[in-house]
Design goal:
Layout lengths: L2 E5 L5 E5 L3 H29 L2 H4 L5 H16 L1 H8 L5 H6 L1 E5 L7 H9 L1 H6 L4 H9 L6 H6 L1 E5 L30 H17 L2 H15 L8 H17 L2
Antiparallel strand pairs: 1-2, 3-4
């Protein structure tokens, strides 16, 4: 496995482990198994049980094609739909514990998944997937062509982590939040904020902390009521956890 360094918008490097070829193949074959199960279910229900072939004998070629397209359309949009819903994961990726992320530190969006989905034609369909396999094996960031075009990478989530490496914060049941507007931020925003803050704190870099506070205030409209930047960021992290847990 190769290490993947992602630069956040605060110019802080976050290190991830890129998913191995084996992990990606594992996710691919799990998804393939799910797709094949769907195909068998459609064939059994519509072609054996309902005998749709007999019903389509009087239809023209375009009508039959339209029926086949409707029945098998979920297979076509399988990956892009699930990755958009589950933020970079299909069922196979969830089981193998890998995920698609942007290499610039942002959460990948629908446009990125769409580019990856489009390039599946080249990566997987041509030459039985050899092109995608070679690209992943030879790329420094373990990227297939679709990843390179979308600016994404696939990382493993199997690293052993504790609460200090996540967006979670310890809060008691009696905790009273201070900044309701913190819900304007996303999980990915909070991850970047926490990692940036921890990195700046370790380096005693007050300038980065000051810029981080200014960025939070500018994006959310929140004003630092404590007057202490460190306290402000800690409260922001705890408030976000409070509101997301009680929504």
């Amino acid at each position: 496995m190769s290490e993947l360094s992602i630069n956040t918008t605060q110019n802080v490097k976050i290190n991830f482990i890129a998913a191995s070829v084996g992990e990606r193949l594992g996710a691919y074959f799990i998804d393939l198994g799910i797709k094949l199960s769907y195909i068998f279910a459609i064939i059994w229900i519509f072609f054996y049980w309902m005998d749709i072939d007999r019903l389509m004998t009087n239809l023209d070629m375009w009508s039959r094609g339209a029926i086949f397209l409707v029945l098998f359309f979920p297979l076509i949009i399988y990956s892009i739909t699930l990755e958009s819903i589950f933020e970079g994961q299909s069922f196979g990726k969830k089981l193998v514990k890998i995920k698609v992320v942007k290499i610039d530190g942002y959460q990948a969006g629908f446009g990125d998944y769409l580019i990856r989905w489009f390039f599946r034609i080249i990566d997987f369909s041509l030459f039985n997937g050899i092109i995608g396999l070679i690209a992943v094996a030879s790329s420094k960031k373990s990227q297939r062509l679709g990843d390179m075009a979308a600016g994404t990478a696939v990382i493993t989530l199997k690293n052993k982590i504790n609460i200090s490496h996540t967006i979670l914060e310890d809060i008691g049941e009696a905790y009273v939040p201070t900044y309701p507007l913190v819900i304007k931020l996303s999980d990915n925003d909070m991850r970047i904020i926490k990692e940036t803050y921890q990195s700046a704190l370790a380096k005693n870099d007050h300038e980065i902390i000051y810029k981080l506070v200014a960025k939070i205030e500018g994006v959310t409209g929140i004003k630092n009521q404590s007057g202490n930047n460190n306290d402000f960021i800690r409260v922001i992290l705890k408030d976000y956890n409070f509101y997301t847990q009680h929504m």
